Amino acid sequence: xxxxxxxxxxxxxxxWDPGQPEGPFPWLRPTIRIRLTLLYGGMFLIAGILLLSxxxxxxxxxxxxxxxxxxxxxxxxxxxVSSSTCPGVGIDQSIEQFNAAIGQxxxxxxxxxxxDLLSRSLMALMGLSVIxxxxxxxxxxxxxxxxxxxxxxxxxxxGSDLTRRIELDGPDDELKELADTFDEMLDRLERAFTAQxxxxxxxxxxxxxxxxxxxxLLEVHLSDPGAPVELQQLGKTLLATNERSEQLVxxxxxxxxxxxxxxxxxxxxxxxVASRAIDQARGEALAKGVEIRxxxxxxxxxxxxxLLERIALNLVQNAVRYNVxxxxxxxxxxxxxxxxxxxxxxxxxxxxxxYEVDNLFEPFRRLRTERTxxxxxxxLGLSIARSVARAHGGRILATPxxxxxxxxxxxxxx
Length: 414
Prior knowledge:
By secondary structure, this protein is an alpha+beta fold. It has three domains: 26-157, no CATH class; 174-258; 266-413, 2-Layer Sandwich (Heat Shock Protein 90), CATH 3.30.565. Helices cover 54% and strands 10% of the residues. The protein is built from seven helices and seven strands. The strands form two sheets. The protein has a five-stranded mixed β-sheet with strand order 2-4-5-7-6, with helices on one face. Strands 1-3 form a two-stranded antiparallel ribbon. The longest helix has 63 residues, at 95-157. It is elongated and about 155 Å long.
């Protein structure tokens, strides 16, 4: 029976939720809601300024058309007038002086009325603008709330629970059409993930079993002391080929599984992981005359210890196997830099052109060759290391080392 496939792992948490802005200054983030608010409020402000300008110009024009004095004193005796609003009007004035003072007072009153109209209108416009911006922000949030639901559902769905659906209610508008399309895409993704998991589980069973049987039969025949030398030599060759096929199958299955995110995460010390990898590769390093050195500081990350050990082992083994014939070394260090755990593997070796570095991470690719064709491995080590690093939310970079060899840098979030 094939193993029961486990649910797809969960991705890292996105950094933004439409309904709840994050960060110390959420208002500075140019979200759609903020842009819609600025659009609504800005349109209202522009319309209010235009309306205020038109009212002001019409009022000024109406006052200018009535610029003539409503009355004029042409004669008389003992005319005594006093006014608290027209300081230019006095008791001992001639008729001409009095008429001029009255005209200037009327002009001042008209200017004061226009200024008062403008100031009061501006204050009213500011108050209404604040209300308009607040109302626009609330309405934008209400209009965009379906997008928040889509985002939250997508956050829970992608890689963790493909059975969830948005099932957005409401009018048959563009947002509902988007949600329905997303639900249809989730249906297809669920079927694809289920088929992939079933295939990996079946392949794991169907491929491992015959290879294990072949290995057992070959080992039984090789244990026969009476077997001819030619048969023993052939058996050793077939056993090596079978072992290589087992490594290839294990590598392919691990590569397929590590492309997803990690569900169960536990504290893992990269220094301990690197030390275990070094212990496993030390025998091969001694046989090739390669020195393994380096200081490993505490660097604890959240992840899968087995997969992280696979990264370290693949990098160390590659550094040992692709080294110089004599006097080679491999330096393995771990540390914490800028809030990230760093695993650094440097080695001597042949000169690697910078343009060929990216090809090393492709499956079955090696330096200056397209396919594997030696006893140094199956050509999946760096591909597995990269996919495992990505599954942990990290990355791996390779840099040619001056004088030959490579510097492999793995960074993982703490």
